Amino acid sequence: MPPPPPQASLKLSESLPRYRPSKSFQDTHPNAEITSLDFDDSGEFCIAASDDETLQLYDCRLGKHQKQLFSKKYGVHLAKFTHTTTQVIYASTKENDTIRYLSLHDNSYRRYFVGHTGKVNCLEVCPTSDQFISTSMDNTLKLWDLNSQHFHGQLVLPSPLLAAFDPSGIIFAVATPHSAPPSILLYDLRNYDKQPFATFPLPDTKYLQSTRQAMPTWSKLEFSNDGKNLLLGTTGNHHYIIDSFKGSLVTRLIRDRGPPKRQNGHTWGTSGDVCWAPDARFVIGAMAGAGQQGSADGGKGGVGLWDMGKGIPVEGCLRPGWELECPREAGGAGCVAFNGRSGLFATAGREVVFWLPEMGEAGTGGIH
Fold it and tell me: What is the pTM (predicted TM-score) of this model?
């Protein structure tokens, strides 16, 4: 039985603004970009998938690169640890739409999950079992078990783009941005074949019209660690926090300068440039076209910290309280992930960067 989902063991309200880049890794091709990040259950390892068709494994305790693995024939995206430190699943970007189950120990495939007929755009492993979810451009969501090559459940939905398990592993959410209106659907894993028990429409037309924006592309769906809220990340100038019980909009997280631009123009996006901190109070995300020439900040880029513990402004838009500077050479924060076991978070663009608190300093943004 896999361990329970990690709980925040650190008081982050004071330490997060003191986080600084601790270690940078440039192990991919110089022109490659990293498209996904994930930590294993123990918090000891980080896996990065890159568009140069490699997987990079990092030891978080030692702060070192562990090994490189290749997937040249099939490509690699959305690499996710199973409940062991030596096995991952990932989506193919070439040849076919098969999901591959890889042993990192000997670089051999344990199983192939065949069934999708379109690009897989989301993979999520259940936090409490060996089940996982995939969504695809073939308009299906499939439920799998790591012990079988055949999917055991399927939902046909209008362009399912993202999925997420709640911390209990009982509920899963599905984002369908092309339904009318764009919505998030909640299902009980034990009765997934029935209608969703909750549907949260997210038209947000009044705000979008007032700011002359179209609905941005949705890029990340994640439950907070206490299960109370959902983070819906986008590729635009704002993200959404949604009450996971009522479906009401809690706040928009504003980032004025927009997201990082991806140099290589790949169509499969990233695993998301925004995430929850383990205490369910802070959200961490990319702030600018980090590392890009001509970006508003001169190419430095930044990581924003949104603190919901100080209350939500009347207009329902929350701006970052702090901004931390990314190393220029790292290529920004196209992917962001938090290691709830160790208190480390990682960002990735051209390089993987580990962040840890530096004692005795405040955040650099000066926005709060």
Answer: 0.90
